[in-house]
UniProtKB/TrEMBL annotation:
Transmembrane feature ranges: none
Pfam families: SLFN-g3_helicase
The protein's name in its UniProt record: Schlafen group 3-like DNA/RNA helicase domain-containing protein
Organism of provenance: Agrococcus terreus
Signal peptide boundaries: none
Alphabetical list of InterPro entries matching this protein: P-loop_NTPase, SLFN_3-like_DNA/RNA_helicase
Length: 572
């Protein structure tokens, strides 16, 4: 079992330990250095030498060391434990994590499960010594953990990040503009890559000029004097269209060295900015808006004013993507066009050419590894295929392993099951399509959703609803959950979709769809949306809702005919 040595972080103490234990100079170890509200986590084969380097560098102010030693440790296990502790410290938020993002890939190795079981023991011991304030499940359920820039990347995420950064430095040096695109289904970690890139670029720009890279980590080669010079005065921002997700990421940035909440921007902030950006990373770019009526009148006015200022006229063909291209030399765009959920989102005629141009330059990177849903990539494809199936074809439910997909006859029974899961593992919520009026917006006591004897209300807050005090008792809409993870999602498929027995397909029912902006025609651009157009958006909404649950998804279909049509696919 691991042994944790605790000692003052000074030369005399480290020298004394090295004299008493040969593993201090020739054994793979993981260590933490702490001081006040700061912590640094590392791994090394020579703790004595590494301590000397830290004591001469930017970590010399730290005061105590905890060194984890195990007779069976090897390099892969140490890298894994280092990443594990960094992510938990970041999610705990009690201490500022001083590590930079040099890159660890979430790689498998021999008997990894056995090693990771011991990692929990290391955490428990460090927590007993006051280094952590919360349990592992509490930390893992926090947005600070889920949206942390300290991630062990999947192989495809790491490859995309390396290619994007290498190309970016080439373009910065050459003085040419560029657009790179990262594509991926829900749960493949596009937001993780966006946040990771922000931290990596900020760390390179702020790196200690006297500390040369070790060459041991994936992105160490980017930490050079030349790259620091290219990024030294660069203006970098992360554009997030959704208000709720933007607020959550700003909170993460406020706890992360070299990042700042002011770096997280709305598209309107980019458009209003007087200064150009060197690099803009755009998350959920499919949610950028085309020219259309906005949520509030002042934004509709601002859309016109920004377009006029940037392009000399109110060209209705211009979108928020055009603003970003006009205000930034380099754009890194996270995109999944199948997650567009409103007519005002970027249309196919904008997204298609964008991807084609980037692909022609070799700048499209595809993420395939499923990180959210425990059932894997097959589940996401299954959900989309089941909703879009036509004729007599039944979409065969794939082998989902331990993933808990359930089909409920009764909405009340589903809610009870979700509440039970929330009691057990937390972060389990009810979600629904926009098939019920928002009555409680005007009457706080009025029920919004009435089904199977249940009387429920929509989310009372639009910002960080999942963490809000009342979210357990409420129902979240697409606008509060897109971009977030749940442990379990209970999804109500409302009467905004039904079953056409003659054509044998899911159809959209406009009279039961109550998102006013979700079905509004674009009068500014003279576009009217047919039921078939809106069907695409609503099925995208349900596909997003049905892919929020990491451990399980519970489903109740309100329309009886549609319930029977979907039963062969969703029920066991």
């Amino acid at each position: 079992m691991p042994t944790i040595h605790e000692l003052p972080f000074d030369d005399a103490s480290m020298r004394a330990w090295a004299g008493a234990d040969p593993r201090a100079t020739n054994w793979p170890v993981v260590y933490t250095l702490e001081g006040g509200s700061e912590v640094y986590v590392g791994e090394t084969l020579n703790m004595r030498k590494r301590a000397e380097q830290h004591l001469k560098g930017e970590r010399q102010h730290l005061q105590r060391a905890h060194v984890v030693v195990d007779e069976t440790f090897h390099k892969s296990a140490c890298l894994d434990l280092e990443s594990f502790l960094i992510r938990l410290f970041s999610g705990d938020a009690a201490r500022t994590v001083l590590n930079r993002n040099t890159g660890i890939v979430d790689a498998d190795y021999y008997r990894r499960d056995e090693y990771q079981a011991r990692f929990d023991t290391v955490f428990d011991e460090l927590r007993s010594r006051g280094l952590f304030t919360r349990s592992i499940p509490e930390i893992r359920n926090s947005d600070l953990f889920k949206l942390s820039p300290f991630k062990a990347l999947t192989v495809d995420q790491a490859a995309a990040t390396a290619d994007i950064v290498e190309s970016l430095f080439h373009d910065l040096e050459a003085g040419v503009q560029s657009t790179s695109i990262v594509q991926g289904n829900p749960g493949t970690g596009k937001t993780i890559v966006a946040i990771y890139l922000m931290k990596l670029l900020a760390d390179i720009a702020a790196a200690d000029r006297d500390e040369e890279p070790t060459g041991e980590s994936l992105f160490d080669d980017f930490f050079t004097a030349g790259h620091r010079e290219l990024l030294g005065s660069a203006r970098i921002g992360l554009v997030v269209p959704q208000q709720s997700l933007r607020a959550s990421i700003r909170r993460v940035f406020s706890h992360t060295p070299n990042l700042d909440p002011s770096m997280v921007l709305s598209p309107f902030q980019v458009g209003h900015s007087e200064e150009r950006f060197d690099v803009l990373v755009v998350d959920e770019a499919h949610r950028l808006s085309q020219r259309a009526a906005q949520a509030v009148g002042v934004q509709t006015r601002d859309f016109r004013l920004i377009t006029e200022r940037l392009f000399g006229e109110d060209d209705h063909a211009r979108s928020q993507l055009d603003w970003i291209e006009a205000r930034a030399e380099h754009r890194i765009v996270m995109l999944d066009e199948l997650q567009a959920v409103r007519p005002s989102d970027l249309p196919a005629e904008v997204v298609g050419p964008l991807v084609e141009r980037a692909a022609a330059d070799g700048r499209v990177h595809r993420l395939a590894t499923q990180m959210r849903v425990a059932a894997g990539t097959d589940y996401v494809a299954f959900v989309r295929d089941a909703l879009a199936a036509e004729g007599d074809a039944t979409v065969v439910r794939p082998d989902l392993g331990e993933y808990d997909l359930r089909f409920f006859e009764n909405a009340a029974a589903m809610r009870e099951a979700i509440l039970q899961r929330d009691d057990e593992v937390g972060l389990s919520r009810m979600l629904a399509g926009y098939a019920w009026r928002w009555r409680s917006n005007k009457d706080r006591s009025a029920p919004d959703i009435e089904v199977d004897g249940l009387e429920l209300q929509w989310n009372r807050t639009a910002t960080e609803w999942i963490r809000s005090r009342t979210s357990r008792e409420e129902v979240g809409s697409i606008h509060t959950v897109q971009g977030y993870d749940l442990n379990y999602a209970g999804v109500l498929i409302g009467r905004d979709v039904g079953w056409d027995a003659e054509r044998r397909r899911v159809v959209f029912r406009r009279e039961h769809y109550f998102d006013a902006r979700g079905k509004a025609n674009n009068n500014i651009r003279g576009i009217a949306y047919s039921d078939e157009d809106l069907r695409t958006f609503v099925l995208n909404i349900y596909a997003v809702l049905l892919t929020r649950g990491m451990l399980g998804t519970y489903v109740h279909v309100v329309d009886r005919d549609l319930r029977e049509a979907l039963r062969p696919s969703f029920a066991r």
